[in-house]
Amino acid sequence: MNQEPLILALPKGRILKACLPLLKAADIIPEPEFHNEHSRLLRFKTNHPLLDIIRVRSFDVATFVAFGAAAIGICGSDVLMEFDYPDIYAPLDLGIGNCRLSVARPEKTQNEDLNDPARWSQIRIATKYPNLTRRYFAARGVQADIVNLHGAMELAPIMNLSSLIVDLVDTGSTLRANGLKEVETIAQISSRLIINRTALKTQSTRVNQIIDRFRQILHSSIQEGK
Ligand code: PRP
Prior knowledge:
This protein has 226 residues and is an alpha/beta fold. It has nine helices and eleven strands. The termini are far apart.
């Protein structure tokens, strides 16, 4: 039978670097062009004839997998929380891309209400996570008016585009450099192996082989860390 390759969707940027040792340990070796950051190629062959890799934005990894265009992906739990796609199964926390999703406000502000979260009722928030931000604030009775940005969120409060931001924080240096202060942590974030639920049924042997490979790597790294 002539089988189509399975597609593994990987996110561009920092998480991609963190994925490389995992891929190597899983004996998934992309073609050399994959490591060329200037390459315009988006789909890459691997050492397995029936496994190809695509390299897309982290938000798009979830979308490719949710719609079944890719059977497998690696993406942050922030993205999964934002979309909440029912067609994605996320069996493994890969322990990479660890950071937190936080609410931040300007370090210095004349607005007393902004300093006291108990007084927030309707507030303008810049974020690339409109759904989860709206949900998070609605759960405590606050109406979030969302300013939807795709990067450089930290500029928004400085430029009076919003009062708060919701963004990823790792070292905190981007917040500090832009005169912002973390006020609440919404969630701890890490990258997950994600699977399209239909592919899990229709291509169960191949998909489960890959899940098992990643599970074994995680298991042995926990053993080594003991
Ligand atoms: C992320 C995030 C913050 C920064 C936080 O951006 O959006 O801007 O990292 O890291 P820090 O706490 O260590 O300073 P990233 O560099 O991934 O780029 P992006 O703006 O394209 O999301």
